[in-house]
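Handoff note, outgoing to incoming analyst
You'll be picking up this chain. Sequence as last confirmed:
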Amino acid sequence: MKFIKSLLIVLSILIFTGCDSFLDLDPQQSIDTNKVLTNAENIELTLVGTYPIVRDAYGQNMFHFSELLADNGEFDFRGTFSQPRDLINKDLVDNFSWADDAWNLAYDAINRTNIVLDYKDVLAESDQDEISGQAMFLRGLLYFDMVRFYAKPYVAGQANNQPGVPLVLHSNFDVSKVEYPERATVDEVYDQAITDLTLAKSLLGEDSFYANKYAAAAILSRIYLQKGMYEEAAIEANFVIINSGFDLAEVPFKAYNNESNGIEDVFTFQQNNDDNIGESNAGMATFYASTDATGRSDFQITNVQMDKYEPGDLRGEVQVDLGNGSKIGDVKSIYYLGFGSNSRGGTFCAKWLDFKTNLTFVRLAEMYLTRAEGNFEAATVLGATPLDDINKIRERAGLDPLGALTQAAIRKERKLELAYEGFRLHDVKRWKESVGTLAYDDPTLVMPIPKREIDVNDKLTQNEGY
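Most recent structure output, in case you need it:
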């Protein structure tokens, strides 16, 4: 299939930026659907061009939302950009630029997936399942994370009819027929995400340059975990662990900064130097790295985080033998003392070290942690005992195995293993923890609906506090 074999990151056949709303398309940027969307290659290129947009939505915005909004002293921000500081301080306004950017990128990508799904009949029959599955995967993933950031949290056992985000399920090229939907409920958005990803899992193959059925199962496991559907989360995680052929990297550090998919990578967003002109590592290395050639040295990691690791934990080692003559390749641990012309000293996280490496998104280690938590909370033993799964993660980190397991121990391992990978805020909310003095459902931990969207669409309501 052409889009699988090609590594081209191209612009889609549509550009929807610069409009008054994510649904308000400029006629000059529209296309003649009767001419272009009868071409299978253009549909394939539309899908290929969607992946870097989704990658940027996460790397430039949503990963930062999760880690910085949930910050409780783990970051020492030394940069000049206002947006990270506003997130750390939980001091957002209704036109917060990063919230606007993520919204626009997400709905741009969703509209492109809708194009693929609406016009899939022009594809060769042999390609329809794979390409439709890719589009379903991306749409389901985006709706899941959009509702997690732009709405009050899902709470297991309640109706969850609080406003979520608009559900747009068909493409639109005619400005005169643009619809302005209201916000679907949180429950409805979760249901749509599950529907999309379940279908994606059934359509996708086992091997792909992009998402495959195991990536879809992994995101389903995240959704079920967020909903407190623990047995279902364990089932999906177990499916990945047992069937995918992935394995844990030899040591924690080798799970990151891969230029091609690593042994642990269930799903990554592909990128290289050509993708990173102006936006290094989709925004991650720019802030996290402090080396000879990458990063602004903005996100220093404090002792609040480092003190959480046990002695001997490879995930918490700090490399101190680096200096101004060192290179990126000299970094061998997840934390290191910054070096290079931009360094301000201090400790930095090497999970996002290099501009040209892939954006890590789903690792097999997460699946072991999910299966452990799912089995523990559901009192099931699917695939392995929760203790065995947690000890597998600990032993890879150089730690002694535990003799018994508690809920607190499972949560601690998750926090340490997945630190700075975009999980922090979501785990706080589903565990009903707090961020400093803020409760898990405090409105300041929810992103604002972009003001521009509300100005255009009077059916949209703003989140509390904005």
